[in-house]
Amino acid sequence: MFTTIFLQASTQESIMNMLPFVAMIGVFYFLIIRPQMKRQKNEKKFQTTVQKGIKVVTSSGIHGKIVEINDTDNTITIETGAGKIKFERSAISMELSKKYNTEVK
Q1: Across the strands, what pairs with 87?
Q2: Which of 18, 28, 86, 93 could make a disulfide contact with 59, Cβ separation 3.0–4.6 Å?
Q3: In the predicted model, is pLDDT for residue 32 greater than 90?
Q4: Residue 21, φ and ψ in degrees, nearest 5
Q5: Percentage of residues in the chain with pLDDT exceeding 90?
Q6: For residues 71 and 54, what is the distance between their CA atoms, to the nearest angstrom?
């Protein structure tokens, strides 16, 4: 009888000891991982919907206008003040481009 009570108490204690770790994992997921996944999804959607003539900013900070889009090798050509530069499509930053376009207006 005493052993069953002791086993039940130790099981409840072990569950209570694990509860803070489970809570930390849940908080970590909802505050860090989930928003980052959402941001990456929106960034990829933006990169696939870019069109010729849109003013963009690359992740390295180069400002320019899209002149050519090449879907076969997934690159774009951006016209800057110094000339034309070819970039990977993933080099376009959605956040910087949105800031750039709202400041111009």
Answers
A1: 76
A2: 93
A3: yes
A4: -70, -40
A5: 36
A6: 17
Segment 32-61 mean pLDDT? 90
Q: How many CB atoms lie within 10 A of CB 70?
A: 11
Strand order in the sheet with 75-80: 55-57, 63-70, 75-80, 83-88
As a whole number of angstroms, the distance between CA 18 and CA 66 comes to 53
Q: What angle do CA 93, 94, 95 make, to 5 degrees?
A: 95
Spatial CA neighbour of 43 closest among 93, 77, 88, 86? 93
CA neighbours within 13 Å on the CB side: how many for 48?
A: 6
Q: How far apart are the first and last CA of the chain?
A: 78
- Chain segment 54-101, per-residue pLDDT in tens: 889 888 889 999 999 998 999 999 999 889 999 999 888 887 777 777
Residue with tokens 């999804």: 41
**Backbone phi, then psi, for 62, in 5-degree steps?**
-85, 125
The residue count of the chain comes to 105
